[in-house]
Specification:
With 273 residues, the chain is an alpha+beta fold. Helix content is 18%, strand content 40%. A hairpin with a 2-residue loop joins strand 8 and strand 9 (126-127). The chain is elongated, with a radius of gyration of 22 Å.
Amino acid sequence: MDGLLIVDKPRGVSSFNVIRDVRKKYGIRAVGHIGTLDPEASGVLPILVGKATKLSDLLMLHDKDYIAEITLGIKTDSGDIEGNIIERDDSNHNYDKNQILTVLNSFKGHSKQIPPMYSAIKIDGKKLYELARNGESVEREERDIFIENIELLDFDGKIIKYKVTCSKGTYIRVLSEDIAEKLGTVGFMSSLRRTRVGNFKIEDAEKFIKIEDILDVEKIELNDSKYKKFLNGILSNVEGFNNGWIKIYKNGEFKGFGIVNKNLLKRKIVIDE
């Protein structure tokens, strides 16, 4: 069983527990996910099964869609609903939707973001959230992020609901705090739902995608000679294909994935082994 299962992770369940349940259900050890969701977040969690786990690094690069809520006037140490309140702003700001829209739009494009202490990033072998729970804080390097689109869905004077399309590595908790700060107040991410990871959408939850259909890439039919080279990891010349991942077929049967670079085909994944 090799492929990808689109799971709609419920709130209150860890990403690891989802993997554990999939392993138990299908009786297979090789299971991984594309992009962790915090326990209090819900939504799309693509689960790779079998040899599809070898596609993990590539699929991690996909952009994502989220729907988030910011509760204004309260700041927590973790930036989300699970944290302890560390600051309040009881001022009556009387924001209107145009102000909110202006601030949201200011985040579009390329920018830098400092990862939160409450994250799974490792520094000197230790996860940041472990240090944070011990009251420690360490310096973190800024990361490049890209906000392709951000739109206001609702605002009731206290809670901002927005949708964002962003690059890999964007922390919505930090973005939510930054939005509140730009409005001249504090805030925390009180709700988060991921609705898309690359081509995998919430509407397709519980759908299983065969490994050969995971990547929307070119395909090539190999003869006996070139397929033997492919199996043995020997580069072979192929012309007329773009650089990048490619599906490998022999006698019309899917055999795996390779990578084309300057008309040379390199082996990446073989299904039959």
